[in-house]
Write a structure and sequence with these properties.
The protein has three domains: about 130 residues, Nucleoside Triphosphate Pyrophosphohydrolase, CATH 3.90.79.10; about 80 residues, Phosphorylase Kinase, domain 1; about 230 residues, Aminoglycoside 3'-phosphotransferase, Chain: A, domain 2. α7 crosses α11 and α8 packs across α11. With about 450 residues, it is an alpha+beta fold. It has twelve helices and 17 strands. The termini are far apart.
């Protein structure tokens, strides 16, 4: 077992690189029996992207990851790739061999069976993209070979069961993006198609859909990620675009729900509040850090009552519940020459519109601290688009409540998502942080009211 297997910062992988024409596998030539090449990549990265880059850099081969197999005990991971562009000759350090010619122990019996199934096109349990040649099917569907054209430059960023993300760049430099989704994110397909149809000015242009794959092809967006922009005007334009899209969604909430938008309304937040606060109490009791005191007893009871009162106030404000982008930060907005474009709608909700704006402003605070003093000005600018739905007094109170409820909702969302994971306590540090922030925001509101 190599050292990298004991290093949590690195992932070691055995590489099964298949040449579809000869149905052989690339192996190293240094040992008496053929061995699989190895690559060590940084943990917490996109595995397909990192391995494809490492393979191209080391061997000059362009590959497409087909499967990333579960790690067997005392073994490295095993990644299966198809070679999509091969030099005129195989690199000297490698040779093409039959699957059965590899040294014993290079693959477990189960891994060997999976690789063979992939080579035969019979690995149905690994999804739509665990088969040789699927990329050529995509290129044919998209017309990338028309007029006898050259294969576009392909960059695969992610891969999983029924999931794929890659870019295609033709010889003229035109870039398109292909994305397909599997469980538990299949709703992203229907939502993206619906949102692109209803809000074409705010999403990348949809070029083609592939229902059999839950996949779609969009035009590349030229521009700068919003979180890299220090221009206050760009953030104002984005908040305005967000408000316009949300206002337009008021009458179409039913179709968005039918497409898979999650319920994140005040009513549902109140419904989740009791079990959530029960876990908050456990999370606070488990705190070991002394940097901040845990919230306990009466403090938590009072916070729960204050949050409930705030949710009731927002629900009764007259401001309608609308479309919410649940992952609006993290580079998912591009400032194009024509205005902001919103990417990655995997987490699409229906809820109070200010939640979305506040999460965007929190991203501003994280990534552009030089603009953090502009948050109140940007918040008021966004709120101006909702004046027709509430009195000035109600809207002013809504603005003051929004940061607290946004922090609370972020914690509840993370808690609910983590409840399905192997270790639900993983999210506890985030919950503690967000609940302290919720209390601070509510206390600030009380001070302003006093």
């Amino acid at each position: 077992m190599t050292d990298s297997l004991n290093n949590p910062q690195r992932i070691e992988c055995r590489l099964v690189m298949i040449d579809a024409h000869s149905m052989r596998i690339l192996t190293t030539t240094a040992a008496p029996r053929p061995l699989l090449p190895r690559e060590s990549i940084a943990a917490y990265t996109r595995v397909a992207e990192a391995l494809n880059d490492a393979i191209e850099q080391r061997y000059g081969l362009r590959t497409m990851q087909l499967a990333f197999l579960p790690r067997a005990e005392r073994q490295s991971y095993c990644a299966v790739h198809e070679i999509i562009a091969l030099r005129k000759s195989v690199p000297r350090s490698l040779s093409l061999v039959e699957l059965g010619e590899m040294a014993p122990g290079e693959l477990s019996g189960e891994e060997r069976a999976i690789v063979l199934a992939i080579m035969k096109g019979q690995a149905s349990g690994l999804g739509n993209f665990a088969r040789l040649g699927w990329i050529h099917d995509l290129l044919a569907k998209t017309g990338s070979y028309r007029d006898g054209g050259t294969m576009p430059a392909i960059r695969q960023l992610n891969q999983g069961i029924d999931f794929c993300l890659l870019s295609l760049t033709d010889t003229g430099g035109r870039k398109t993006w292909f994305k397909a989704v599997g469980e538990p994110n299949t709703r992203e397909y229907a939502l993206t198609v619906e949102l692109a149809r209803r809000f074409p000015e705010y999403l990348p242009r949809m070029l083609a859909t592939f229902p059999e794959w839950n996949g779609w092809l969009t035009e590349g967006v030229e521009g700068v990620p919003l979180n890299q922009s220090g221009d206050k005007t760009a953030w104002e334009q984005t908040l305005k675009a967000l408000a316009m899209m949300q206002r337009d969604s008021i009458e179409t909430k039913a179709s968005l729900r039918a497409a898979g938008a999650k319920d994140w309304t005040c009513a549902r937040l109140r419904l989740l509040s009791k079990p959530f606060f029960a876990d908050v109490e456990r999370a606070m009791q488990a705190q070991t850090s002394t940097k901040a005191m845990p919230l306990v007893g009466d403090e938590l009871e009072r916070l729960q009552k204050d949050v409930d009162a705030a949710l009731i106030s927002q629900a009764n404000s007259g401001i309608p519940e609308t479309l919410i982008h649940g992952d609006i930060g993290h580079g998912n907005i591009i400032m194009s020459p024509d205005g902001p474009v919103f990417l990655d709608w995997a987490e699409t909700f229906i809820g109070q519109p200010f939640l979305c704006a506040e999460h965007l402003l929190a991203d501003l605070e994280r990534c552009r601290p030089e603009l953090s003093l502009e948050r109140n000005s940007l918040r008021r600018s966004y709120a101006s688009f909702w004046r027709e739905y509430a009195s000035p007094e109600t809207l002013a109170d809504f603005i003051q409540l929004a940061p607290a409820i946004a922090a609370f909702s972020y914690a509840v969302f993370a808690w609910e998502a983590c409840a399905r994971q192997r270790d639900p306590t993983y999210v506890w540090p985030l919950i503690r942080s967000m609940m302290r922030r919720t209390r601070r925001e509510l206390e600030m509101r009380k001070e302003v009211a006093a």
